[in-house]
Amino acid sequence: xxxxxxxxxxxxxxxxxASLTVTHIDKTHDSAVNGVRYxxxxxxxxxxxxxxGTISVDVIYLPDQNKCYAIDTxxxxxxxxxxxxxxxxxxxxxxxxxxxTTGVGQQFAASASAAAVQTADLKSSQAVALQTxxxxxxxxxxxxxxxxxxxxxxxxxxxxxxxxxxxGTVPDATLAADTAAVxxxxxxxxxxxxxxxxxxxxSQAVALTAAAATPITTTGPTMGxxxxxxxxxxxxxxxxxxxxxxxxxxxxxQMVKNDGGELEEKVELVAVKSSYPHREDIVGYVYEEGAKxxxxxxxxxxxxxxxxxxxxxxxxxxxxxxxxxxxxFDRPVLAMTANLFKDGSPPTDTGVVPALSDDKKSVTIDxxxxxxxxxxxxxxxxxxxxxxxxxxxxxxxxxxxxT
Amino acid sequence: MWLLVVVSxxxxxxxxxxxxxxSTGIRYYENAPYLIIYSDGKGGLNWQIRYxxxxxxxxxVSPVVKLSHTEMNLYFQNGVLSSGSATGDSTxxxxxxxxxxxxxxxLLAAGVLAGPEKxxxxxxxxxxxxxxxxxxxxxxxxxxxKIQVPIKQGxxx
Lengths: 403, 157
Hints:
The complex is a heterodimer. Chain A is an alpha+beta fold. Chain A contains 3 helices and 16 strands. In chain A, strand 13 and strand 14 (about 360-365) form a beta hairpin. The longest helix of chain A has about 60 residues, at about 100-165. Chain B is of the alpha+beta class. Chain B is elongated. The longest helix of chain B has 14 residues, at about 95-110. Chains A and B meet through helix 1, strand 1, strand 2, strand 3 and strand 5 of A and helix 1, strand 2, strand 3, strand 4 and strand 6 of B.
């Protein structure tokens, strides 16, 4: 294989690569998959009951355990940087991936170029050396050729003269010497020709110092600076007015087969239904029609921090002609004893007894026989202190002014 | 000559495509507008348009690097690729479509507006807003459970 095609093949074989691979995870092979985990979100609609009888509606996102993935990175003869961030729910928020596979190629190109230059220098030196040897051999052949021609000319001259001159003019020894000279010149010519032929066919060794290519400086990708330690949102506290929680509806948007077997899109809100472990229903809790405990189970709670029912308003003014004044408790009491005093130092009992209504929530006072002035309502109540059946007592007063 | 063979193999791409079982890229959702309607408890309605992840459009993004450089910066919000562009809210929906939604909301949530014949609070509604040219289609319906809400205990005559 020529050096040219060898270089091309080497370039392809040494090509670097960097990859980012994301694999779906399920329980069967979770431990065998490498990489940082993240999940796609599942949106839910949260309907939270409010104390004023309304609901608040929020969209929340929870990780979908059926759509979790592992991000893995690898490189071969290349360089890369990889950063990612997730929120507190494990949802992916950002990914930065930078890869460079040119470093090895650059160095190879530089090294291959240096090697090619040295190869060219070597071949050039060898060619020069060969030509020098050939030139020298050719010079020797030319000299031998000239000597052979001269010797032949001398022999021919002496031979021709011997034929025409009187006998003995050209001694036999002279002719013999001429013949010998010609033979010697031809022999030398033949030898010189052989040297020339050998010089042409033989490569010449030359002295050349090989030098390694200078390593080039390559710079890998730089990790970005936009990634900072994430700030995870503080959990939200949802106060609830009752012993039941909010309703979580899964927002499902999927392609399903209709009755005809064709795929069609279906969007629906499906309430999350769960029994919740280690929980007992509150006995006697009454659900309104349409609400069900599978989507809104009860949880144990108490009213111990509620305090006694409050008599309201704390002060009111009524015209004496109204003949009746009414006060209310913000929640029902169990029982009540009450008196109406004329404000003074000291207060004096008017003898009028405030009456508790049948629903145990309101107090009425007959003012038809009272004169205009300031009065004090004093009540002593017993009330339900908590859901466990404990009771408490409380003494409260309110002011009434008749005009 | 051999340098030409090397140079011809350079490439750097970031590919976005519909996710398949064989995909190896980072999965994310495209988003879509959804209409949410629920009672205000006083005989009226609350409605809002929210851009949510479209679970029918799972995408995959992957970089391919060959004898080159590549950079990929992706930003996600609730599973949706945002990358600096707005994820959208109702203000980006054309006013004509908003008007159509506003006018049809009471009809879509007729059960809510009829008033609670039964004490439980009516379930909210959700509809996916599908816009095709000038046609607007709503896909969805009410939740399958009503809501237990304590009746407001007022003080007064």
